[in-house]
Specification:
Elements lengths: L14 H12 L16 E5 L7 H11 L4 E4 L10 H5 L11 H10 L2 E4 L7 H12 L6 H13 L5 E8 L8 H17 L3 E8 L7 E2 L1 H12 L5 H18 L5 H13 L2 H12 L4 H8 L5 H4 L8 E4 L14 E4 L7 H8 L2
Parallel strand pairs: 1-4, 2-3, 4-5
Antiparallel strand pairs: 6-7, 7-8
Helix pairs in contact: 1-6, 1-7, 2-9, 2-10, 2-11, 6-7, 9-10, 11-12
Amino acid sequence: MRRHADGDLAEGNGPEEVETLTREMMSSGEVMSWPKEWAGLVVDKHSTGGVGDKVSLVLAPALAACGCKVPMISGRGLAHTGGTLDKLESIPGFNIHQSAAQILEILGSVGCCIVGQTESLVPADRVLYDLRDATSTVNSLPLITASIVSKKGAESLSALVLDVKFGRAALYKDLDSARELAQSLVHAGNLLGMRTAAALSCMDAVIGRCVGNSLEVMESLETLKGRGPEDLMELVTTLGGLLLQMTGSVSDLSEGRRKISDAVIGGAALSKFQAMMEAQGVANETARSLCSAHSDYYSVGEPVNHSVGAELLVSLGQRVSKGASWLRLHFETPRPTADQIARLQGR
């Protein structure tokens, strides 16, 4: 591959070359296999990252409640984008390290799990990422495509949906470049035999209201209890509806969205989330307390650390009067100094 001075790969790295690279990376380690009776039901979602992006925490159990198997392999925070694994580890006992055998067992009993990448899954990706960093090709479209799709291919998915972000807080700032990435990812995923689709979503504002690992878990739990923000539910039902449509579980997107919404509003997704927590190491009492209808997250104490994060008190486009509060910060002791508070208020 030829590289220009700006880090972009030269033209001429066409779909065939990207497919070959992706396939070889996928085959560099373990490729998961599933029982025959799960054929057509193993699905996953990937997001290119954002602020307050807690979609996976609601979507995975909702899909499981609809009969899918969701071996969701997620990542940690990168730069300003939050990581799903970091959020879940704010729940004491939640173990994101699961072997292939353990993943199979959890999928069989619960239907979903959210785990980190195993050492044996696409080891070439870790090597190539270090090389990309050294050669200033981290933002190369073909290499981004191969990195993302190879890991999903190693999950042996039936269907994959991609949430490709654009906007001020996204990797790609404009719609056209995000669309180009989406097309590249969809093409590569389909070539590997996964039914692949993408949704383009704006990342100019926080998803939901909360930012911060434990705060985002709390907002996800509130959403699973039917009390979530509209923008978060919009993404959950759209992405989930697409996956249900691709698996043939529903006839169209509208039906898929209704089915995902019913799983959340009716409490089936919450039950799956509780079962997933327990299967991944969270104490039964803690999981039940967090998922109870009137859980007092403050009194739970250790299971959800409420001390760090930000909570938006207004929505994008809402008129704010001078002097009105628009942001609440949650912090650990010691309290911020008067100088720090003045600097924050002066922004």
